[in-house]
Please model this.
Amino acid sequence: MKKKFNFKKLYLALIILFFYLPIIYVVFFSFNESRSLTSFTGFSLRWYEKMFKSRSMMESVYYSLLIAILATVISTIVGTIASIGLSKSNRVIKEIVTQVNNLPMLNPDIVTAIGLMLFFTTLQIPTGFGTLLVAHIVFCIPYVMLSINPKLRQLDDNIAEAALDLGCTPFQALTKVIIPQIKEGIISGALVAFTMSFDDFVISYFTTGPGINNISTYVYSTSKRINPSINSLSTLIVLAVTLVLIIVNFAPMLKQRKERHHHHEQVF
Model:
């Protein structure tokens, strides 16, 4: 009996190739001995060496990480406090703030970028590290709130009041009762904020200043000429992201296995 041709598997394979073949191509040619991006002439680490020796490239990595970390920390704190406060507000205020919060996510990046650029220009604020950081915080906060709000809706409204009745101060009720209940949403929001900040180009391009480049704006500035060191940088980023994904996915499994093993030892 002949087997039917499985179009679903073929479609899935094509989708996987579409997403991952360019990444494999970049990783492969990052080890190329020559500058060619089409012909592999031999294995070499020269482009990795050149990447680490390039001051401008290392500065772009430094600014990308610094901006992403600061934007993530600040937007997570502000977004968490705003979401908790919003959950205790009346329905009208909640709806208005929610719709305003959704605007940066619904707007095209170019609209947000031009808006922020005009805002800084109108106030005569010189563009640079500060304006870039503020811009990243602005567009990261909505993603943090979007991740936290569903967790707050699942939270029992009486938990905070019960904590206060049992002697907790408002700050203790916030840090020891509410935040532990919504920590999954906070972590998810922080990860999304870091990813959006680290990956951003359009908003960064319009709000940065001379001498301040993150990875995306630096790559754009060198896109007119062949620079194989970019492949090396991309490979290291892919490696770092892959390691983070492995840790994020396997850490809960290892934790559950450890808890089951501990429970099994207590039983016996």
In short: The two ends are 54 Å apart (CA to CA). The CA atoms of residues 152 and 195 lie 23 Å apart.
